[in-house]
Amino acid sequence: MLDPFEDRDINTMKLYHYPGSCSTGIHVLMAEIGADFETEVVSLKDGAQKQAAFQAVSTKGKVPTLMRDDGTVLTEFQTIAFWLGRAFPEAGLLPDDVERQARILEALDYMVGTVHMRGYTFLLATGKFVSDPEAQAELKAHGAEVVRDGLNRLDAMLGDQDYLFGDFSIADGALFYICRFAARVPIDLPPRLQAFLERMQQRPAVQRALQAEA
User: Do the domain assignments include residue 142?
Assistant: First the structure.
């Protein structure tokens, strides 16, 4: 059976992103793999995700969106992260062991699907869901509870390791943006996650990605 990731020659890709959003996590992973890629900002605050130029790339109108060198497009954080890990094995972002891969994907789904979408989204975009002030307050309280619970779970998962699964992996791209979002709420990070955030900010690839977004 052929492996679709074997002997793949990747030269130039394009990441559609918005600085400070979850797409920063993918930006970091792309900087880590060391392949050539371009970036294009999709200004969410100006509604660029709904305009024809970006809709022609992705009808979902979401970032991150990755256009690969063959013109095919990937969307959704977990999918892009997994593909990067498999397509660039030399970067060591995804272990070969199936059980560890499953655990990493499990963590990615939790961070993106729960902590971000059911937590931070209700805190940072409350007006998209309800207009009544009392309902907004309730929704924000729910979002804060989900985020705090999620951060505590992730802090326990991290433990005394440098990274979420010991060695740096695709999961740490998601954990990085999840930790950065806390300052926008604001919610204090548990101590080990705070140390993780500071550790990540010292990685050369992270610094390159953040400089590019600045």
Answer: yes
pLDDT, tens digit (0-9, with 9 covering 90-100), for 127-164: 999 999 999 999 999 999 999 999 999 999 999 999 99
Q: Choose among 200, 191, 113, 118: nearest CA to 152.
A: 191
pTM of the model: 0.93
Residue among 12, 126, 120, 127 at smallest CA distance from 68: 12
Q: Whole domain around residue 167: which residue ranges?
A: 98-202
| Domain end position, chosen among 67, 93, 119 | 93
C-alpha–C-alpha distance, residues 203 and 206, integer Å = 5
Contact 26, 17 (CB under 8 A): yes
Contacts of 53 (CB under 8 A, 6+ apart): none
Domain's final residue, options 93, 117, 132: 93
Residue 110 lies in a domain: yes
10/34 Cα distance (integer angstroms): 11
Closest CA to 79 of 97, 99, 65, 95: 65
